[in-house]
Design a protein that fits this description.
Blueprint lengths: L1 H44 L3 E6 L4 E4 L2 H6 L3 H5 L12 H12 L5 E8 L5 E10 L5 E8 L1 H12 L12 H6 L1 H6 L5 H6 L3 E6 L4 E4 L1 H7 L3 H5 L12 H14 L1 E9 L5 E12 L5 E10 L1 H15 L9 H17 L6 E7 L2 H8 L1 H18 L5 E4 L12 E6 L5 H15 L3 E3 L2 E3 L3 E7 L7 H17 L5 E3 L2 H22 L3 E10 L4 E13 L3 E3 L5 H7 L2 H22 L7 E5 L7 H14 L6 E5 L1 H6 L1 H13 L3 E7 L5 H7 L4 E4 L1 H6 L4 H16 L3 E4 L5 H9 L4 E2 L10 H12 L1
Parallel strand pairs: 16-17, 19-21, 21-22, 22-23, 23-24, 24-25, 25-26
Antiparallel strand pairs: 1-2, 1-5, 3-4, 4-5, 6-7, 6-10, 8-9, 9-10, 11-13, 11-16, 12-13, 14-15, 18-19, 18-26, 19-20
Helix pairs in contact: 14-15, 20-21
Length: 745
């Protein structure tokens, strides 16, 4: 019985122990499940790429970050040896790292380039260690492609300042505690930076810095560890730095420029950006910052400041600075009643011809020499500047201005202008050629009526352009009449602009007649402006200003378009005149390579046969740019468009160009035609032109025929065509059409 009780007691104890073991196992099971769940969460939701791989070369398990980073699915990555995804140049180092793991190295770190699904490669940083199972190892991989790119960029250039720390801000905020605890945090990366990197706590103690701070400041690690951040900077910048720190504490970010003062006292300009570091609860821990040396940029900015006020080529004050000098003189004249000043503006006569003859470099040399002469011979308190009004499209402005200070009377100014011209006209050697130059000079004397410096500079400029009309080497002193003329010129320019916008132009058509049969063979299109204020304005009153202002381009296009449209309309309504031609004058400003494309568009738009279009140009068009003119002639001939030389006989070089350019016809200037019956010399010129043109297979058109005597003489000389009041004055399109219909009947 006693044994039986003992056995029961023993069984009860064993059952109790078993229950305890079961409870312990259940607790361990729960802990294991929780640990596995926590491990799975960490494994699956880590932003880093985690994997378990075997020494057989295959990945056994990996987290979703792999697919997000590289684009490959888990199956694709696990179905091939991982070396297949490694860049060929990095495979040897990767194999070496795997061997070190297999040999029992506790932790192995390395980098390689991994193939993405889009065929690109990304730089990956690896930290791996063997598992307890000897055939497996665990690895943490991080995409460091951007870091690699930044490192390479930093080695190549310092031209672009990019905050290296911005790319890591999210990570820094999440792992602030780790950053402050781990001394080895990105040590290699930070020390590779040429930029300054630092972290300090809320008490202003340095916690971390890279070697760049030591190199720039000259202080050792021991010295920096005992310094406050503000001790590295110029005293004058400390307040600015403290304000930036306060801003970072409030807003999380700030950037400033400040001078770093090294151990030798040298001041180095830096641009800094700082961010607030917080722990995972959002509690501020400190400030991290990065700074870049901006010495080169500051030097560049100083140069920019200089060039804002000075002309690069001549190193003279430019227009903006010169106006400031005038403004100062005007203010002085207001304070000091006996103080007088004057402004001289001049430019070099025929400067464009000099450039065409010797090139732009020679033109620049000429401007430099002129500037040197001005600086050498002016009084110390006078100011000289290079003034460029068309700086947007400058090829080499040749306009200069001089401010004469403290003059006694107008005779002082005239003597200064004479001295100026005497110095400028001295021979200058360019490309082994001696060049003699002259200048057109405009003068404006300061007076109480001027309210701003631009006005007096404008008036001196107006006087200069007046001087140019008087011939080379002249000077003109501005008066109010010139101002009125300038205002009138500006008003005319504005009116022309409005005429384009409001379609106030119209064309008249003067018949061109076959002399042998008196049959109309074509018309010359003549521009008229129907001005609301001026009435019907002839082209000679507007062409020059249109060319100077560039308005000739839209006006000329309109003339071509309207003339072609009207001729095509006549040919459509009156098929008997399908041979009729229209002649259109083209100015020197229009005669560019763009003209051919414009004509193609107009012919396509209007439907006019190209053979029915004739262009009239003067020799000045060719003289302006012979090479371009030759190309334009070639393209026009391909289109079957004829070109006629207008006003032949009035220029000095017409004959030389007749051999070079394939003109279809010559138009004898009206001055010869109208005097040929009374002047033997004029008759001989007309006869010579007709004979020469026919010998060169060109037709001849006589302009300005007004009498039967002129017509008969031209018939005797076998002139081909004529136009003039004898047959018809220029007509509106309705009158011209009626004339054509009458001729049919």
């Amino acid at each position: 019985m006693e044994d039986e009780n003992k056995t029961k007691k023993q069984l009860i104890n064993e059952l109790e122990e078993l229950r305890q073991r079961i409870t312990e196992l259940e607790i361990l099971g729960t802990k294991y499940k929780n640990a596995k769940k926590e491990r799975d969460l960490l494994f699956n939701y880590s932003i880093d790429m985690l994997c378990i791989a075997g020494f057989d070369g295959y990945i056994k398990e990996l987290n979703p970050s792999w697919e997000k980073t590289l684009g490959w699915s888990n199956n694709e990555l696990q179905s091939k040896p991982y070396l297949d995804f490694v860049h060929p140049e990095d495979r040897e180092s990767t194999i070496s790292a795997a061997k070190r793991l297999e040999e029992g190295k506790v932790i192995v770190t390395f980098e390689n380039r991994y193939l993405c699904k889009d065929s690109s490669y990304k730089w990956i940083f690896w930290k791996a260690f063997p598992l307890i199972e000897e055939i497996l190892f665990f690895a943490v991989a991080r995409d460091i492609t951007e870091q690699k790119r930044l490192e390479e960029e930093l080695e190549r250039t310092q031209s672009q300042f990019e905050l290296e720390v911005n790319a890591q801000t999210a990570e820094l905020r999440q792992r602030t505690e780790d950053l402050l605890k781990e001394k080895a945090f990105t040590e290699n990366t930070l020390n590779a930076l040429k930029d300054i990197f630092f972290v300090f706590d809320l008490e202003g103690r340095f916690l971390r810095w890279n070697k760049a701070i030591n190199e720039v400041s000259g202080y050792s690690d021991e010295e920096i560890s005992s310094m406050k951040p503000t001790e590295l900077f110029l005293k004058e910048d400390i307040q600015k730095i403290e304000e930036a720190i306060n801003k970072i504490m409030k807003e999380g970010y700030a950037s400033i420029e400040a001078f770093v003062v090294n151990k030798d006292g040298k001041h180095i300009p830096y641009e800094f950006a700082g961010s607030l570091l917080k722990d995972f609860k959002g509690v501020p821990l400190g400030i991290c910052g990065i700074g870049r040396d901006i010495s080169e940029r500051k030097m560049f900015e100083e140069k920019i400041k200089y060039y804002v006020s000075y002309d690069i080529l001549t190193e003279l004050p430019n227009r903006a600075l010169f106006l400031e000098h005038i403004k100062a003189s005007m203010a002085r004249a207001t304070r000091q009643k006996d103080y007088k000043f004057a402004v001289i503006v001049f430019n070099i006569d025929n400067f464009k011809k000099i450039i065409k003859s010797f090139g732009h470099i020679a033109g620049d040399q000429l401007l430099i020499e002129v500037a040197a002469r001005l600086k050498k011979h002016l009084r110390p308190y006078d100011t000289v500047a290079r003034v460029e009004y068309d700086a947007v499209a400058r090829l080499g402005g040749d306009e200069f201005a001089i401010l004469l200070s403290d003059i006694k009377n107008i005779r002082n100014v005239i003597r200064a202008a004479d001295r100026l011209h005497n110095k400028i006209k001295l021979p200058i050697k360019i490309n082994n050629h001696i060049v003699n130059i002259t200048a057109s000079i405009g003068i404006a004397v300061g007076k109480p009526g001027y309210e701003n410096p631009e006005d007096i500079l404008r008036d001196a400029d107006t006087a200069m352009y007046k001087a140019k009309t008087l011939g080379k080497g002249c000077y003109v002193i501005f008066d109010e009449v010139m101002h009125a003329q300038a205002v009138s010129y500006l008003q005319l320019e504005n009116s022309l602009q409005q005429a384009i916008e409001k379609n106030q132009f119209l064309l008249n058509y003067q018949p061109i007649v076959l002399l042998e049969t008196n049959e109309i063979m074509g018309f010359e299109a003549l521009l008229r402006w129907k001005s609301p204020e001026r009435g019907l304005v002839a082209p000679n009153e507007i062409i020059s200003i249109a060319e100077e202002t560039g308005l000739i381009i839209p006006i000329g296009r309109w003339v071509l378009l309207e003339a072609c449209r009207q001729m095509n309309a006549w040919q459509t309504r009156l098929p008997i005149y399908s041979h009729l031609t229209i002649s259109v004058n083209v100015s020197v400003k229009q005669f560019t390579l763009d003209l051919v494309q414009t004509i193609k568009q107009i012919l396509n738009e209007t439907g006019l046969n190209p053979a029915c279009l004739k262009l009239e140009i003067t020799e000045s068009v060719i003289i302006n740019n012979p090479e371009t003119a030759e190309e334009i002639f070639s393209q026009l001939k391909k289109l079957n468009i004829k070109v006629q030389m207008d006003d032949f006989g009035t220029g000095h070089s017409s004959l030389s160009y007749l051999h070079q350019f394939p003109f279809d016809a010559l138009k004898i200037d009206r001055s010869f035609v109208q005097s040929m019956c009374d002047n033997e010399w004029a008759m001989e010129i007309v006869k010579t032109i007709i004979t020469m043109a026919h010998n060169m297979k060109m037709e001849v058109i006589a302009e300005g025929v007004e009498t039967i005597e002129q017509l008969e003489e031209l018939r005797k000389l076998k002139c081909d065509y004529y136009q003039g009041y004898w047959f018809s004055k220029p007509l509106g399109w309705k009158e011209a059409e009626a004339l054509l219909i009458d001729n049919i009947q």
